Amino acid sequence: LDELKQFKVALALYEDGLATLLGCLKQERDAAKKAQLAQKFEEYLARAEQLKASLGARAPDHHAYGARVAAPPRPPPAPSAAAPAARPAQTPVAPEAPSPHEAQILAEMLDASPGVGWSDVKGLEGAKRTLKEAVVLPYLRPDLYKGLRSPPKGVLLFGPPGTGKTLLAECVASESRFAFFALSASALTSKWLGEGEKLVKALFKVARDRAPSVVFLDEVDSLLSRRGDGDHEASRRLKTEFLVHLDGLGGGGRVLFMGATNRPWDLDDAFLRRVPRRVLIPLPDGAARRAFLDALLDGEDGARTSLDAARREKVVAATEGYSMSDLRALAEEAAMGPLRAL
């Protein structure tokens, strides 16, 4: 249709194709295929912008509708010496198409809210209060969070696995309504030399362009571990590039970095300096385990189990040292018991 000069129909198809490509980018995990999709996304976007600009500047074709062609307007009178000449109209500049690296980062962006609220996180009141102070409240009342109250540019969530660190990050995405980028170390690494640094640069550029935004990196120790003599040159350069961009977040750009790790002692000292707010996510206490167990057993559909309050207290007492994921696995295994007895 583009070659047949049916530009309006072609533009609509290009827009549908861009939406389809963006969905494929979010689902694709293979780096090579993701790069190909990102390149195709860039080509489609550039052509769609060209068509949109040409259609917007083109006069309507009256012959196509059988209407009479209007007479051309009279030229304006020449400006006199007393009246200054009118400035020529400036042509609107089309938005710059994202690079393939930026398109790959945009594929990791959470467009839809995960639908997790603060009430869904059982316990962890200190962690929730810290995240509210660092993310939500400064956005709602920026006039109060200035000077010594300025929000931190980095927050590190650390603690045993399965305690709810990623769930807290999803909660921040839902409650703050910021642009939220959830990444892992594999999203910022590449087998090609120099590609990792370009991805890191694209990540922070896209985050600044869409500020206020939150960049969440899970298992941050796999990317920003302590540097040593045995590090590969590419790994060292990637860490340096990340730290340089992370150090530049303090300029009031409203970009917050959040990292989660189970091994905080393996993190690089330079990275720890750049995340002044560090929040321990401990194993749940008895009250948190009871609240989480009630939510699991009662279910979202209102179906309740025959486990009364006394038996639930016994389960809570017997699960000292369990994480939230351990409790979920225990409840799922117990739910299979009646089916196995049939």
From TrEMBL:
Please provide, alphabetically and separated by semicolons, the GO molecular function terms listed in this UniProt record. ATP binding; ATP hydrolysis activity; microtubule severing ATPase activity
State the EC number(s).
5.6.1.1
The chemistry this enzyme catalyses reads:
n ATP + n H2O + a microtubule = n ADP + n phosphate + (n+1) alpha/beta tubulin heterodimers
Q: Where is this region: Disordered?
A: 67-98
Keyword field: ATP-binding, Cytoplasm, Nucleotide-binding
Supply the enzyme class, top level. Answer: isomerase
Q: Where in the cell is it found?
A: Cytoplasm
Regions of biased composition (Low complexity) lie at 80-94
Please tell me whether the keyword ATP-binding is annotated for this protein. yes
The family database entries (SUPFAM superfamilies) matched by this protein are listed as: MIT domain (SSF116846), P-loop containing nucleoside triphosphate hydrolases (SSF52540)
From what organism does this protein derive? Aureococcus anophagefferens (Harmful bloom alga)
Q: Name one GO cellular component term.
A: cytoplasm
PANTHER family, per database record: AAA DOMAIN-CONTAINING, SPASTIN
Key word Cell wall biogenesis/degradation present in the record?
A: no
Spell out the protein name for this chain. Answer: microtubule-severing ATPase
Q: Mainly resides where?
A: cytoplasm
Q: Give start and end of each AAA+ ATPase domain.
A: 151-285
